[in-house]
Amino acid sequence: MSYDFNLKTKDNHLIIGDLDANDLAEKYQTPLYVVDEQKIRENYNKLYSAFSSKYPKLHMCYASKANTALAVMKILNTEGSYIDAVSPGEIYTALTVGFKPEEIMFTGNNVTTEELEYAHKAGVKLNIDSVSALERLSTIEGTEGREISIRVNPMVEAGHHEHCITGGPKSKFGIREDEAVEVYQRAVDLGFKPIGMHSHIGSEILESEPFMLAVESMMNIAGKVHQEVGVDFKFLDFGGGFGIPYSPDEDELDLETFTTDIINLFKSKLEEYDMGEPYFFIEPGRFLVGNAAVILTRVNTVKQSYRKFVGVDCGFGTLLRPTMYGSYHHIVTANKMDEEDVEEIDIAGNLCESGDLFARDRPMPKLEEGDLLAILNAGAYAFTMASQYNSRPRPAEILVNKDQVDIIRRREEMSDIFHGQSIPTRLLK
Ligand SMILES: *Cc1c(COP(=O)(O)O)cnc(C)c1O
């Protein structure tokens, strides 16, 4: 074991903020997402100060696709975060929360001209992902002289799963590095003012190496664009992907080493290409919110079939990552925190799919019906990927701040399952 999740416990019970998870489950019912406000604030400040102590011209753009709960975004807004939005819906959400347009970066992918127009009119920063988007943007009224940034693919791949690798030769994102000079020149010729460059190579990065390669590669591309096209960069955006330990076998990102390595490299490349002092942007998603939430779910069935299964009251509609990526999520028993693991069992969800498993052969204490499980690290890519599959209304979400608790998303009702639908009257004879 190299990582322990630093969970608070009292009298055999899991404590979230200052509150007993069992009381929360009793009061708000299960399944339940429980978000810990202080953890989000800690995560933000930890990452921010690690970078800003070495390079103060920093903005962190929270990648809101990790968790778009309004309250979560508001917390980050009060911390001074910017936003990385990947769709018009995320721009709309960020504006609703109170982010200013200039604090929002739109990094769309395969966007329509209408979406570009929406983002342009909203006044947000634009990260352009293809020559096609660049050309279509130029046909939109009022884009003459507009500041833009372009996403490059620096041929470095990183990620915990094939689907999460967003750089390298197979990735659909960004423009090729060897066409960067040409594309920036094209942007200038179309009348734009390029001021930024962006890359995002993947997710769940836990060591410096791949990120260093991406920074080095992107700085060389930016340096070339600066020298050959004359672009003066106001910001260089290196994307997100900072990982968190999901399993006790993983290590935390060593922030001090990581940020020192990266900023030293960044500064030396700025000097090498005589690029002044642009802003350093990063786009953390998972790192800021991943460990800030748990899912509380109740054991309702213990069954000895060919294997032993413990069945709980939610499934991959509540947390898709194990099914979609084979991801490990650590699971603790919120009413048996001090008990030893005694058996290896499968923990299964309540959906009608064999793939609906939260854990296989997982060492757990003796589990019984009525026990309360807490699935850890459910703050990122959890609710945002939730669905009503099998016609199960989505759970409620509560926010704990020390001893305070608020419902930030009500539990869906049965009628929410067919929200917005209608039966044509001709079928109602
Ligand atoms: C998803 C995404 C991020 C955030 O990734 P994390 O792994 O959650 O940090 C950042 N930037 C872009 C463009 C993304 O698509």
What does this structure look like?
- The chain is built from 11 helices and 21 strands.
- It has helices spanning 21-28, 37-52, 70-79, 88-97, 113-122, 131-138, 180-189, 208-229, 255-272, 286-289, 321-325, and strands at residues 8-10, 13-16, 19-20, 32-36, 58-63, 82-85, 104-107, 125-128, 147-153, 175-176, 193-198, 235-237, 279-282, 293-304, 308-312, 331-333, 343-348, 357-364, 372-375, 396-401, 404-409.
- Strands 4, 14, 15, 16, 17, 18, 19, 20 and 21 form a 9-stranded mixed β-sheet that branches. An 8-stranded parallel barrel has the order 5-6-7-8-9-11-12-13, surrounded by 6 helices.
- Helix 3 packs across helix 4 (88-97).
- The longest helix has 22 residues, at 208-229.
- It is globular, with a radius of gyration of 23 Å.
- The protein starts with 7 loop residues before the first strand and ends in a 20-residue tail after the last strand.
- It binds pyridoxal-5'-phosphate.
- Pyridoxal-5'-phosphate binds at residues 63, 65-66, 84, 86, 107, 200, 203, 239-242, 283-287, 380.
